[in-house]
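User: Some background: our group keeps a shared notebook of sequences we're curious about, and every so often someone picks one and asks for a predicted structure to add to the entry. Today it's my turn. The entry only has the sequence so far, pasted here. Could you supply the structure so I can complete it?
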Amino acid sequence: VQLVESGGGLVQPGGSLRLSCAASGIIFSIYNMNWYRQAPGKQRELVAGISSGGTTTYTDSVRGRFTISRDNAKNTVYLQMNSLKPEDTAVYYCNARRGAPNYWGQGTQVTVSS
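Assistant: Of course. Here's the predicted structure to add to the notebook entry:
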């Protein structure tokens, strides 16, 4: 199983980024997909999730700014991040979950700074 994130980088406050996570080795369409992030010195936190049926959830701090989506034909989940703030700076991880085990990507760095 592989989850490969891409799309991270350095962006100014107020800017946008789109993260992608390409999955292989799983039946992607039946997995719930999530984006987590971990800032230095902080615990990993769930940012957004999308169920196999397309239901989405967001943590309060990103609701209205971030949008999670999936393309089952491409085995890919996306995180569109708008109006980025310095506090969004973290390593962002893709997660695939359907009971146990669940799978993680290697992470992609997002830095929001002027």
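Suggested note for the entry: The longest strand covers residues 17-24. The chain has no helices and eleven strands.
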